[in-house]
Automatic annotation (TrEMBL):
This is L,D-TPase catalytic domain-containing protein. GO terms for molecular function: transferase activity. InterPro entries: LD_TPept_cat_dom (IPR005490). Residues 56-177 form the L,D-TPase catalytic domain.
Amino acid sequence: MTWAEVPRRSRQVLVVTGHDRNSPVSTAVLYERAGDGWRAGAARAAHNALHGWTDDHREGDLRSPIGVHTLTDAGGRLADPGTRLPYDRSARFTTSGTGFEGEPLSGSFDYVIAIDYNRRPGTSPLDRTRPLGPDRGGGIWLHVDHGGPTRGCVSLAEGAMKELLRALDPGREPVVVMGDAASLER
């Protein structure tokens, strides 16, 4: 499924590999296409949805959608850290309360990158347009890790998010390949 679905023109691929189908724990690696093949960056710890992964994501299922998705837009509550992606800074990137393991959620949306799953590319990550319909969920982002599972997003440590925002180049047509290890081997 994975590499075969990566568009030939993509020169940056973020691979998020879940430990297993039902695990909220993942590893993220940014691959960059060089003249002689793909070069892997550092492996980063990540979280995904509480109940793991799914091929048929639905609103509220607490699973992250498996697949290959473009990365076209970013934003956050904090100032642009130097990304080349269109960046929407807004106070609306806020969340409060606690996560599934009692961890505070504040700061989770300081930096986000919209995963183009059931959204309209070229718009703010805050745009709630859902081309596949609202029952298929949406608002799937890469965002700052809060120390526990997400509702459907993928989260990385704040430093890793800043590095990723600075590294992604729309001219290299970045995508994310995400899912549990067994699904990514199909």
